Amino acid sequence: MKLFLDSALIDEVREAAGWGIVDGVTTNPSLIKKSGRDFKEVINEICEVLSNGAISAEVLSEDAEGMLKEAREFASWKPNIVIKIPMTDEGLKAVKVLSEEGIHTNVTLMFSANQALLAAKAGATYVSPFVGRLDDNGQDGMQLISDIVQMYMNYGFDTEIIVASVRHPMHVHESAMLGAHVATVPFGILEKMFGHPLTDSGIEKFMKDAGVR
Ligand code: E4P
Q: Is 208 a catalytic residue?
């Protein structure tokens, strides 16, 4: 299973890259705004820090022609850029063309299994179902992941599922149990995944017994 960092903060990207467990980064317009930096500059810097990772950069156009123009420009910046495209009819038109051009795509703002079916048929490299926002809306986000995993297995689609809008470590655990390909995780949640109180108390006792503390 791959883990992506859901962030546009370069310090977080550097720190997480240093842990050696991050396979990519997802950004969105809100995360770019939070970084307070220029979009192109921050995307290029993230691509350099994680040169073997898949780095998602989101288009802002709402029509296929505009999306294609942006996508081709972003793809020319660095070879590891993935074009993030919203789940609309115009978005899927653009995904189809980009997949034929060999440009990787991540279809975002996905909230139903039928949307995932259409995106896979259009040739999306990744789809991003938003589990946290579904949970917030009183729906079961992880059930959607289970449905998409089953649907893609039934037909052998190559599209990879990125579990997005992750709110807590159990979302990551459940994603792995369901066989999702990727979870994109905010920095604070990745940090929480390292810890367990029994690890801490175990280290404390070993250190005391060894006379280190
Ligand atoms: C990642 O691709 C998504 O843009 C992100 O996970 C959305 O998370 P949020 O629902 O916490 O904004």
A: no
What are the E-state strand segments in the chain?
A: 2-6, 24-26, 54-58, 81-86, 105-110, 126-129, 160-163, 182-185
The helix/strand/coil state of 78 is coil
Q: Which residue's alpha carbon is nearest to atom 10 within ligand 1?
A: 165
| Average model confidence (pLDDT) across the chain | 98
Q: How far apart are CA 142 and CA 134, in angstroms?
A: 9
49-107 tens-digit pLDDT: 999 999 999 999 999 999 999 999 999 999 999 999 999 999 999 999 999 999 999 99
The one-character DSSP state at 159 is P
Domains of the chain: 2-209 (3.20.20.70)
pLDDT tens readout for residues 170-199: 999 999 999 999 999 999 999 999 999 999
Annotated catalytic residue within 33, 69, 84, 96: 84
Residues with CB under 6 A from ligand 1: 6, 26, 28, 108, 128, 130, 132-133, 164-165, 184
